[in-house]
Write a structure and sequence with these properties.
heterodimer; A: alpha+beta; Thrombin, subunit H; B: mainly alpha; about 70% helix
């Protein structure tokens, strides 16, 4: 016992070092398992607060581009309005529409922190539990896909950016509907990889890639990017496709959080399929 | 007491510089200088080793909260906090460090200071960037990042000595 105490006294610095290192790695691993302790959440509340104050100032510098973007979006929305089409007949029939039900709800949020130069990038937005944000909602911008909501606190939410090695998004080529998955390779914030497209399919440069709508998170048809380049090695079954992302992650300011109203309906079906394919009980 | 306040102000200043400005810079894609570690380097020679570790840990953790990477910076900063006394010992002048002096250019010269900064920065950056990518297999890419980021950090740290601690 005496020896032990003497040992601890002699090496207390090294022991403290190991303890602190262990604590650091504990935090690191916790973070990767999508679980945070409450102390981290308070940390985010504070850093979120500081960043939102900082952004209030920094916002003024990008006001011009932001206006431009909003104007462009307004124009494209106006193009879809009914009164920008001319009706040729006098008959207007009113029907109570039971065929079309609202499936997605869009909420706007402002980006208060963003990074593009890490290997795993995160975004913090200024909407949280209070505003009805919950984990696993989709986040898009007026230009395309942004990411998926990860953690939510009272006033803020963190979003796993598409620029994150842990994210894979189900996507398809708009022209012919063949589907694969989009993931980020960890170096350039303008590029991503589009995988799982077999080589017998004809693809072209500049083909548009959109979300497939197969998952419960993203609605169908949200722009992801265009094919910039593709190649395949001899013997491979799949193309190696490089995408030019449509979202400008550096210039992100306002985003939309998308809530899928029919998610609860779809999840049990998906789970059932997974269970049956595991037990091999396919009929 | 006055010295203590000076270090607290330095802490706030360099953390703000790191998270508000340097983390948003991006030279040619993957260079990110980490200048905040200067706060570990500048602490007095007589700082007890446990205090060095605890201060390093909190410095790293503060940066972590702002860059959304709990534990990553903390682990790297604790490492240099632990290794600092050994580094100082290995590059000490012939007759050791005089009492009442601080690890600054004006006491031990530019050559000594550059050696000190290079060693600590390389240790910190290597550890940090390898912890950051440990799921990635691209070893030489990471080595390039370490090298380039270190060059920028070293220049900024030595430059800051001439701007801030002029007196």
């Amino acid at each position: 016992m005496n020896n032990l105490i003497r040992f601890i006294f002699k090496h207390y610095v090294t022991i403290l070092f190991i303890l602190l290192e262990a604590l650091s790695f504990f935090l690191l691993v916790q973070n990767n398992k999508y679980q945070r302790t409450s102390i981290l959440n308070t940390g985010y509340e504070i850093s979120g607060f500081v960043y939102s104050k900082y952004n209030e100032v920094a916002e003024y510098f990008s006001l011009r581009q932001e206006n431009q973007k909003l104007a462009e979006e307004n124009a494209s929305l106006r193009n879809q309005l009914f009164n920008s089409y001319k009706t040729d007949t006098f008959f207007v029939q009113k029907i109570y529409d039971t065929l079309h039900k609202q499936q997605y709800i869009y909420k706007t949020a402002k980006v208060v922190h963003n990074s593009t130069d890490q290997q795993n990038n995160y975004i913090i937005i200024d909407k949280g539990l209070k505003h009805g944000i919950t984990p696993d909602m989709a986040v898009i911008s007026s230009n395309g896909v942004v990411g998926i909501v990860k953690d939510v606190t009272e006033n803020f939410a963190s979003v796993i950016s598409l620029l994150n090695s842990n994210v894979k998004i189900s996507a398809k080529i708009k022209r012919n509907s063949y589907f694969g998955s989009v993931s980020w390779e960890g170096s350039n914030y303008k590029k991503a990889a589009f995988n799982e497209i077999p080589v017998h399919i004809k693809i072209q440069k500049k083909d548009t890639v959109i979300t497939s709508g197969y998952s419960t998170i993203f609605p169908e048809g949200i722009m992801i990017g265009r094919i910039e380049d593709f190649s395949f090695k001899g013997g491979d079954n799949f193309y190696q496709i490089q995408l030019d992302l449509s979202t400008d992650f550096k210039g992100l300011n306002y985003v939309y959080v998308v809530y899928n109203l029919m998610k609860e309906e779809k999840i049990p079906i998906l789970k059932n399929i997974q269970k049956e394919s595991k037990t091999g009980k396919n009929k | 007491m006055q010295g203590f306040i000076k270090y607290i102000l330095g802490f706030v200043f360099f953390v703000a510089l790191q998270v508000l400005i340097l983390n948003n810079l991006q030279f040619s894609g993957f260079i990110n200088p980490f200048v905040y570690i200067i706060m570990v380097m500048l602490l007095p020679f007589e700082t007890p080793r446990w205090l060095l570790l605890v201060a390093s840990f909190f410095l790293g953790l503060t940066i972590d909260f702002f860059s959304n990477t709990p534990g990553m910076h903390a682990s790297a900063t604790v490492l240099i906090g632990y290794l600092r006394p050994f580094v100082l010992k290995s590059i000490s002048p012939r007759d050791g460090y005089d009492t009442g002096t601080l690890p600054r250019i004006k006491y031990y010269g530019l050559n000594w200071f550059i050696k000190y900064v290079i060693i600590i920065t390389l240790i910190h950056h290597s550890f940090l960037l390898f912890v950051e990518v440990f799921r990635f297999s691209s070893f030489f890419f990471t080595l390039g990042r370490i090298f380039l980021s270190s060059i920028f950090s070293i220049f900024l740290i030595i430059g800051s000595q001439y701007f801030i601690y002029k007196r």
